[in-house]
Amino acid sequence: MRVRSIRTRLTTVAVSATLLLSVAACGDSGGDGGPVELRFSWWGNNDRAQATQKVIDAFQAQHPDIKVSGSSADFNAYFDKLATEVAAGDAPDVITLGGAYPREYGDRGALLDLARVRNELKTDKIDAAALGNGNFENKQYGVPTGVNTFALVVNPAVFAKAGVPLPDDSTWTWDDFARIARDISAKSPKGTYGVADPSSADMFDLYSRQRGEGLYTPDGKVAISRNTITEWWTMTVGLRNSGATPPASVTTELEGQPAPEQTLMGRGLAGMQFDWSNQLGALRKASGQPLELLRAPGESGQKPGMWLQASQIYTINARTEHPKEAATFVDFLVNSPEAGKIILTDRGIPANSEVLTSVVPALNPDQSAQATFIEKVTPQVGPPLVIGPTGSTDTRLILQRLNAEVLFDRKSPADAADEFVKQVEAAIGK
Amino acid sequence: MSDRTGSRTIRSGLRRRESRVAYGFLAPWIVGMVVFTIGPILASLYLSFTDYTLLSPPEWRGLENYQRMLADSRLHKSLLVTFQYVFVSVPVQLALALGLAMLLNRGVRGLPIYRSVYYLPSLLAGSVSIAILWRQIFGSEGLVNQLLAKVGVEGVSWVSHPDFALGTLVVLNAWTFGAPMVIFLAGLRQIPSMYYEAASVDGAGAVSQFFRITIPLLTPIIFFNLILQMIGAFQSFTQAFVVSGGSGGPADSTLLYTLYLYERGFGSFEMGYASALAWTLLVIIAVLTGVNFLFAKRWVFYGD
């Protein structure tokens, strides 16, 4: 009898211990008293991660009651991961977004309306146009990290080796562009190309804006015409046929590895590559070459297609338990010269005018080249970009798929153009 | 009388206490099963009839999601890709497994070592690291092309070409022949050697022995492996996700069903539609398994 009761008691203890352990495993966060813990996520390479960690350290030194843990991934993986975290209700407190993503997440109620934390997070010194990229239906969902422009990166060393002069970017046309790309490929060693395949959603915006279109209308419909897309793809197929761009399978392979170090430009294997201006530093470092920024071809022809845009946008999770602390952190990121001096131009030219002034003397040649370029194109760019509606973040993937179909000659440019409009309409129709 | 009743109460009381203890021990698993498996399965059945974007509550839509599948051309493409993948990679994998099992069954020295070595890929191949390795091996500057270059052939980037990308996944799946091989080996051991002795006395050659003794007696094992590997292949995800960089590309050529399901659910927040896709996959697998069982009567031989 006694033996049995001891055994029963032991059993009960064992079972409750198991249960307790599993409960304990779930609930190690939270609690009173200790510092508030924030999670902050961004995309980018290792250099950016190191710089960002320094900013976090500086912030924590000023705010010992707040602890920030950062996490980063490359661009493709970042948004997959974020979607999963948002779905699980476990998204970071401060989330870096860009392009059409703030609207995508904001419209779905995942982002905090920053009006609720206006005491902690000031936006009065921030460039109005850039601030507009985080404002949808009169709600401010995000603060721009900096200003950026989609432009052409060139490698003068590749041009010189091929004996091709750099173009005059104030007058050149798309025909000049194609000819130069062809020439470079023809006169360069095997494996070096005139230009990396230029098709991308940003490129579609730029090219069609030169014709007064753009990807989307302000009321959230498809603006780009089939005709424009057909002409674009006819040109890029011509580039591929002439060897100006790499074979299709190289292009599709490059799409899977978006880090600047892995691009053709980053490896010194391309004369030209369209990219965001804030990538200049990373690309220069990766290639070891004095890369430069140029205006896109065709800017002087009809209408300018280039634009200035918030390069990235800091947003706050609507479900965060610490909105005030999160806002204090974002305020530090965008409004403090201290953070500005660490981040410099890595997330675009600082959108806060005071930060920019204090940062300029600290810029290295790479960064001041970027700042100079932005300054140069500012009077020449077109109107602000129309940000895509909810569902438009699919456009990037739709374009990637159809671009592969076109480059592998499985679809004609005209058929792919029809498909593109149809699929984007379906994606933003819901 | 009273004595007997007494002992029965004691015994039933004991049994009750023992079963209570048993349930106590089982509780963590029962709770896990209900909360993490059965609950979500039932929830996804409900969600498959709704429009659910994760952030706002689901809205009832009846059969809309299922109707949408009929017109979804990318779904049809992904079904085609998945069927190609399953119907090529599973037979290839089983043939490899059986071939190697036959070889190893001839009494090779160090059998446990070979068995483990060949089994290893089955443990590794589902992992992200092997998929990344695969990307490198079949990339434009990968091992395969370096070997081809030695014999003067210029290869393409196999993982990035729509004609070959799925092929690299088939090879990856076939490489995991270890698990069915181990089961085949066990099956081969079960076949009494007297059958072979009798057959050779009657003058039957190796080929005829293979088709008339080995295969017929092995059919239950073949059947078992076929069902298991087929279900596994339909659910393949990691390899295609990593090799294609999450896109199912190039040009949707590696868009396995589960990848498309993931893309709808987590890329476009269409959880309702993704749930409907999941249930459709379940039905497809159930139907094909059922068909397999029906045909099994004609070719599977259970001895005696």
Automatic annotation (TrEMBL), chain A:
Protein origin, superkingdom: Bacteria
Membrane-spanning parts: none
Coiled coil: none
Keyword Signal set for record: yes
Record keywords: Signal
Keyword Cell membrane assigned: no
PROSITE patterns per record: PROKAR_LIPOPROTEIN
Signal peptide bounds: 1-27
Pfam family membership, one: SBP_bac_1
Protein name: Sugar ABC transporter substrate-binding protein
TrEMBL record, chain B:
InterPro entries: ABC_transporter_permease, MetI-like, MetI-like_sf
Transmembrane domains' residue ranges: 21-47, 83-104, 116-137, 164-188, 209-231, 276-295
Main location: membrane
Domain called ABC transmembrane type-1: residue spans: 79-292
Cell membrane is among the record's keywords: yes
UniProt cross-references to Pfam families, sorted A to Z: BPD_transp_1
Protein's membrane topology: Multi-pass membrane protein
Cell location: Cell membrane
Family the UniProt entry places it in: Belongs to the binding-protein-dependent transport system permease family.
Protein name as it appears in the record: ABC transporter permease
